[in-house]
Design goal:
By secondary structure, the chain is an alpha/beta fold. It has two domains: 300 residues, BirA Bifunctional Protein, domain 2 (2-Layer Sandwich); 62 residues, no CATH class. 37% of the residues lie in helices and 20% in strands. The chain contains 14 helices and 15 strands. The strands form three sheets. An eight-stranded mixed β-sheet has the order 1-5-6-11-10-9-7-8, sandwiched between helices. α13 links the parallel β12 and β13. α6 packs antiparallel against α11. The chain is elongated, with a radius of gyration of 26 Å.
Length: 386
């Protein structure tokens, strides 16, 4: 007997969750387009040399790859849509001014982001190209917060960081790739013991990194870093930027964490994320990534964010949608067909019962509110229970 199983961390999206995801997708894209963002639909697969260009090793390790039998080149299934948007802006659109792009679609991860995460996340995002000033970061951050509110998140707690602080510290010494990876891993897990075990790091940098490890939380973190980190114009500029952004974000609360080095290989400035209690992984991530387009021939400043809609839908309250039920038997009747068309045009869900189908069975799928019943001379939309 054949047993039909899907790979670990890949599962079917069933009707109620699919309806929720689709509603979220429409909400996101409607809001993005109302803010001037143009929709793009990059392909699921691309040649690896363009799919991964400029993204660093993290995305490379998380990308499924296989050989194109037509030409022998390596093809990858996208693990992130942001690099594809950067390629479209830099290489295809080739605009001289500001470019605003948005998207929604599935990705595929070779490894889940955490043990319970899906390997096929569905994401929606917005990217802004061509603006290097802080106002662009603030606009994108406020759009991210507003989007989560429209998706129904009751409170938005924002975690802010700035890759400029860690970069300024690590640039003080020429670290090998292996040492750098160990340092970033220790920061990511806030593991001071692991950081102390990394060989080849100067005492000055190690002490400064320990300052980052123990200082995270409210706005007092910024004062502590200004006091305890080495004097450095890049660090001071980064702290000033993040303080300004935090005042304009529009979130319910803000915290600061400079050890969140997710995307260190390509993020160049502000970074931000939003977590919810029901999920270990951030349901929104964003930041500034000014150098991604360079690999495609144009070094364009850029900032943006992605929302993990599948993860958000998985913890949402999946309500049964309301429906007006049409109960008809017998032959085609132009009068009732006209009424049904009118109801559907008004946005109501109308289900025509088939022979042998019962209202009780349909209640497993829909919250039935009305019946369309025949009267002496016409039809009447009658509320159930009346």
């Amino acid at each position: 007997m054949t047993t039909w199983l899907l790979p670990d961390n890949i599962a079917d999206v069933l009707p109620r969750q699919a309806r929720t995801m689709e509603s979220m997708r429409r909400t996101c894209l409607d809001l993005f387009q109302a803010n001037g963002f143009e929709l793009v639909q990059p392909p699921m697969i691309e040649f690896v040399d363009s799919l991964l260009t400029g993204t660093g090793t993290d995305l490379d390790r998380n990308t499924f790859k296989f050989m194109d039998q037509a030409n022998g080149r390596m093809i990858g299934v996208r693990a992130d849509i942001t690099p594809q948007a950067a390629r479209i802006d830099a290489h295809i659109l080739n605009r001289s001014g500001i470019s605003r792009l948005c998207y929604a679609g599935s990705c595929l991860h070779a490894k889940p982001m955490h043990p319970l995460a899906s390997r096929e996340p569905f994401v929606a995002g917005a990217e802004l190209f061509g603006a290097a000033d802080l106002e662009a970061d603030i606009q994108m951050l406020r759009l991210a917060v507003k989007t989560l509110r429209q998706l129904g998140l009751p409170e938005v707690h924002l975690d802010l960081g700035h890759m400029g602080v860690v970069r300024a510290l690590l640039d003080r010494q020429d670290l090998s790739d292996g040492v750098l990876a160990d340092v970033l891993s220790a920061l990511k897990h806030k593991d001071g013991t692991a950081l102390d075990r990394v060989e080849g790091v100067s005492d000055e940098i190690r002490r400064a990194l320990h300052v980052l490890l123990v200082n995270f939380g409210d706005a007092s973190v910024l004062d502590a870093l200004r006091r305890d980190l080495p004097a450095d114009s890049a660090i001071e500029r980064a702290l000033d930027e993040i303080e300004t952004v935090s005042r304009c974000a529009g979130a319910d609360s803000v915290s600061f964490d400079f050890c969140d080095v997710h995307g260190y290989q390509y993020l160049t400035g502000l970074s931000f994320s939003v977590h919810i209690p029901q999920d270990a992984k951030a349901i929104l991530r964003g930041g500034r990534y000014d150098n991604v387009g360079l690999a495609f021939g144009r070094s364009r400043p850029a900032c943006g964010f992605s929302i993990y809609l599948r993860a958000l839908a998985a913890v949402a309250e999946l309500e049964v949608p309301a429906a007006s039920i049409v109960i008809t038997r017998g032959s085609y009747d132009p009068a009732i067909e006209s009424i049904i068309d009118t109801l559907r045009e008004q946005g109501k869900t109308v289900v025509r019962l088939l022979p042998g189908e019962s209202v009780d069975a349909l209640k497993e799928q829909f919250n039935i509110t009305h019946e369309l019943v025949r009267t002496q001379n016409s039809y009447e939309l009658k509320a159930l229970g009346c």
